[in-house]
Amino acid sequence: MNSITRLGSVVAASVVVAATVAGCSSDAASEADTTADIATPAASDAVVALVPEEIKARGTLRVAVPDIGAPLGYQENGEMKGMDPALGEAVAAVMGLTYEPEMVPFASTLPGLQADRYDISYGEYYVTAERLQVVDFVSNWQDFSSFIVPSDGDLKPESLTDVCGKPIGAMDGSVELQMLQDTQASCTAAGEAEIDISAFNSISTGVLAMSSGRVDGVLVGRGAGENAIDKGQPVELVGQIGGGITATAVARTAYSDQMLEALQKAYESIIESGVYESILEANNTAYGAIDDPTIFTADSTPPIYQ
């Protein structure tokens, strides 16, 4: 992404937080992740044939996995878990490559692609014109955003303008942060105070701030909110903000066209085999499943997000 990327979309609930705040404990995360039971797919000749020779010669698929929390990407006992690392491993397998993931801060993913440290990056990116200036994309999921708020609180926003004048958090570099910033003009035009926005380096930090009263709510991707609710945390998920397809980012190189086709075919392969569905179901993200991975390049018209 450019400076705004998808936690999204996005997007995620806490990895380990105190029992009194939103997020998931390490035990809860373990219960949510059952991808260890999903068989690694075999290499697909059709996919392997599309992998650029430069990457075949190296033999590895270098994958950035943002540390944004369950159910998307998190670490437990030194092991990466969640939907994103599982999808990355499956994609590498059907490409006939060794999976080489690195868990990094969300804001480091696009710069890492531009610096040729990674071949692809997860992050539940919304595909925007700004992002398409620096990287390409293949869609692999869909999401929308909601507010996580305390169950016993009075604030139950259904739209962005419902939080004018309120202290609200979002993850630094996320599309949710951009949504809040873009709403300031609407607040002013309506004669209301601007949103008091706080940007956090992770969603877990944001929900901790909410528990201490520093913010009244946190705008996150829906998956993050669903994960918090499922773990019995004292929070409520309200509103359906924006939404649409999210995508895997692909480094723009001399062989980008080949890599984009290979990644699209890899997703088609794991969708057809049922591995994709199994991964999403194991991580409680099946609500965002797609069946038509699409390539987006600098010349593409970005999707319209509501």
TrEMBL record:
It holds the Pfam family SBP_bac_3. It comes from the Bacteria. It comes from Rhodococcoides kyotonense. This is Polar amino acid transport system substrate-binding protein. Gene3D superfamilies: Periplasmic binding protein-like II. InterPro entries: Solute-binding_3/MltF_N. Residues 60-283 form the Solute-binding protein family 3/N-terminal domain. SUPFAM superfamilies: Periplasmic binding protein-like II. Residues 1-18 form the signal peptide. Coiled coil: none annotated. The keyword Signal applies. Keywords: Signal. The keyword Signal applies. Transmembrane segments: none annotated.
